[in-house]
Amino acid sequence: MSESMYNEKYRPQFHFTAKNGWLNDPNGLVFYKGEYHLFFQHNPFGTKWGNMTWGHAVGPDLVHWNQMENALLPDTMGTMFSGSAVVDWDNCTGLQKGDERTLVAFYTADGGTVTPKVSTTQCLAYSNDRGRTWAKYEKNPIITEITPGNRDPKVFKYMDKGGKSKWIMVLYVDDGGQKSSHIHSIYFFSSDDLKKWTFLSKTEGFYECPDFFELAIDGNQENKKWILIGADFKYMIGSFDGIKFIPETAKLICDFGQNYYAAQTYSDIPEEDGRRIIIGWMNWSKSPEDMPFNQQMSFPCTLSLKTFPEGVRMCKYPVKEIEKLYEKTVEKTGIPVKSGENPLSDIEGELLDIDLEILAGSSSEFGLDIRGQKISYAVGEEDLSFNGTHVHLPMVDGKIILRILIDRTSVEIFGNEGRISISSCIQINPENRFIGFYCSSGIANLARIEIRSLKSSWK
Ligand code: FRU
Q1: CA-nearest residue, atom 9 of ligand 1
Q2: Is residue 25 annotated as part of the catalytic site, yes or no?
Q3: Measured in angstroms, how far is the CA atom of residue 430 from the centroid of ligand 1?
Q4: Which of 209, 236, 391, 428 is deepest in the core (most CB within 10 A)?
Q5: For the segment 124-144, what is each residue's pLDDT rounded down to a tens digit?
């Protein structure tokens, strides 16, 4: 590896990027035998979208990644659009050879981007060697075109109350078809062998890259709800009887930032871990042009459902494995802060994970300036703002809690332990290492702050 590789001026240091070329959606997120697989929409030939290929990275801990050979290359059926992957533990596909369980990937072959154009279909690929090499299923497609543009199959195993299981696929379909009026729908299918799929039902109002999973409310495994998300990460909470999703809420927002899209959750996380881990694409139209790569993934997070005065909401919070990157921690507690003071003036940093708890006290506004990135909280309105985004974040017992991850081109903010998040891409001045906390009137109390400097994932 050349010395500057992974250390270019605007190369994220703890967010995944392709070594070279473009990336967008995370695909095929699956865990098998100690390895997290991260496939991704990839253009190996340039830093703009095109030639869609499944790139592939593998890592032991969600913070270190090793980019492998590309897994799925375009063929006569199309370029390789988004999809998912599962472990076929029981060899229901009959595709296992040797001792390793088969990893099975589902992708869209986008027939519209090959010459001659063909229909857009859902296809299967599999690996018998822990994801090192992939073969496309000889009887592809597994689902023929429903309407042009149908895409992004996400597959998971569903277990009914009696302990009987079947595979479910959620798929984006434009029910408006080629007509000018679009009806964005998610189709639900089921299968016993991952190869033959039967239509079950559909839910309208979600566009591209669906994911569908169950979460326990307040950690109670006896009280779970189903969550449907689309590519914009808006979600509905509801119930699922193995055939149809019945929403019980309007569409809700978890991440209020401008740069979180096409997120996907991991399949086959071991039961004893039990987390629902998600990675999103931090889509960014203003990325620096002089880099050999383009676009980055979000930092992996855990999803949960928690009860708030306004109802049950989905929370998103960074995975604990970030601790593996901690280099130095500075901790301060119980500091009253008046206008004009900066209790952090003795600290600076570049790659940061900051966790703080602030008692509003008599202040009307307080906030942080981290490397020129201003995060502020208006106490009266209970309004958290960053970079033009405003989010209502109610105080709990007169305080708010913030967690902030700063990399070379991103800021991810988590309010009140994941109640809300703001994922943003931004070109941060590499020279600026300033860290400040301010209060603009009255006195706020910085009850607790931990500032952790991070090592690069690439070292
Ligand atoms: C979402 C998306 C998917 C599609 C892929 C193509 O960002 O448009 O619907 O499969 O990107 O790269």
Answers
A1: 208
A2: yes
A3: 31
A4: 209
A5: 999 999 999 999 999 999 999
What mean pLDDT is predicted for residues 62-69? Answer: 98
The predicted structure's pLDDT at residue 179: 65
| 260, pLDDT greater than 90 | yes
Ligand 1 atom with least separation from CA of 152: 10
Q: CB–CB of 282/295 below 8 Å? A: yes
Answer whether 208 contacts ligand 1 (Cβ < 6 A).
Answer: yes
Q: Is 295 in the pocket of ligand 1 (CB under 6 A)?
A: no
Give the span between the Cα atoms of 250 and 248, in whole angstroms: 7
CA geometry: angle 350, 356, 361, nearest 5 deg: 135
Number of the ligand 1 atom closest to the C-alpha atom of 231: 1
The identity of residue 59, as a single letter, is G
**For residue 178, is pLDDT > 70?**
no
Mean predicted lDDT score pLDDT of the chain = 97
Residue 459, pLDDT score: 85
How far is 387 from 428, CA to CA, in rounded Å?
12
Average pLDDT over residues 245-262: 98
Residue of 371, 332, 381, 364 whose CA lies nearest to 348: 371
Q: List the structure tokens of 389.
A: 């985004």
Tell me the per-residue pLDDT of 349-403, one tens digit each, with 9 for 90 and over. 999 999 999 999 999 999 999 999 999 999 999 999 999 999 999 999 999 999 9
Q: Which of 289, 281, 292, 105 is nearest to 195 (CA)?
A: 105
Q: Is 370 in the pocket of ligand 1 (CB under 6 A)?
A: no
Question: 125-162 in b/e burial notation, b at 16+ Cβ within 10 A?
Answer: bbbbeebeebebbeebbbbebbbbbbbbbbbbbeeeee
- Alpha-carbon dihedral angle through residues 123, 129, 133, 138, given to the nearest 10 degrees: -40
Rounded to the nearest whole angstrom, what is the distance from the C-alpha of residue 209 to the centroid of ligand 1?
Answer: 7
Q: Which of 25, 110, 353, 355 is catalytic?
A: 25
- The answer to whether the CB of 24 is under 6 A from ligand 1 is yes
pLDDT digits (tens, 9 = 90+) for 184-215: 999 999 999 999 999 999 999 999 999 999 99
In sequence order, the 6+-apart residues with CB closer than 8 A to the CB of 79 are 51, 52, 53, 109, 110, 113, 114
Q: Which atom of ligand 1 is the closest one to the Cα of 52?
A: 12
Amino acid in position 79: T
Say whether pLDDT at 3 is over 70.
no
Kindly list the structural domains of the chain, giving each domain's residue range(s) and its CATH number in brackets, ordered by start. 21-320 (2.115.10.20), 325-454 (2.60.120.560)
* CB of 88 closer than 6 angstroms to any ligand 1 atom: no
- Could you tell me the distance, in angstroms and rounded to a whole number, from the CA of residue 297 to the centre of ligand 1? 14
Separation of 431 CA from ligand 1 center, angstroms? 35
In DSSP terms, 190 is beta-bridged to: 168, 198
